[in-house]
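Case study B.
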Amino acid sequence: MLRTLLVADDALIIRQIIKDMATNAGWTVVGEAGNGQEAIDQYRQLRPDAVTLDLVMPEHDGLYALHGIMEFDPHAKVLLVSALEQRGVLKDAFKAGAADFVSKPFDKENLQATLAQLLPETST
Amino acid sequence: MKVEYINPFLVSTISTFKTMLGCVLTRGTPYVKNGSQPEHEVSGVIGLSGKAQGTVVVGLGREAAMRVTEAMLQERPSEINGDVVDAIGELANIIAGGAKAQLEHLDLSVSLPSVITGKGHCIQFPTKVTPICIPFDSDWGPITVEVGLSEPHAMP
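Model:
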């Protein structure tokens, strides 16, 4: 079963870490985005099964991207991967439709398990 | 600088190394940084602004910087290269971000990280700031976190 993922984070190295973890867990990473607008554009183009989304990004941030993605696809599975410092924004993000949250620093197992919960076997 | 500003950086550093890198740090005794010690080979530098202002420096030796990068990318770099710079910059970013969450009352903003490389360099702070250095020991060698933070109204 192919599960596709879009990874959005302004830090190249964090995108690389998430890609490695997701690939090891059986995901196919179909795209990357370095800011909020790119995340929206990539989502619309690639229609991935899930997205990992950093909240703090330049130009347009993660909350902007979340709104754009959810407007395009109300059923989008968006996993926030961000620092706990963003707890004030988290409330808005969950209200906007974010599926779950993993705080930085994250460990591989936690990220992989949370990603897996986004797409339970029975729903795909 | 208020001593209570130090603990969030200490906790965040230990947590980041353990959770994200699988490296256990042993904390040494924090001390007031004086002069040109400690020396580093790779430093991640982050500016903080808000109700307090200052700088955080995550300093590592060559081996520790290489091991951090290897833990993040699953591949050991052959030298201090762009991957190492990215890894140490993000490391500093995550440590500062974690500390910021515990210092909510200061309403801090975190700058983009800068990374300085070069054997034996030292980061100096403005004379108005009294930086505190937290030394850590690890299997990857010594790691230090220097925090120089001041509240504008408390400055002379």
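Chain A touches chain B through 15 residues (CB under 8 Å). The remaining cases will be described in the next quarterly update.
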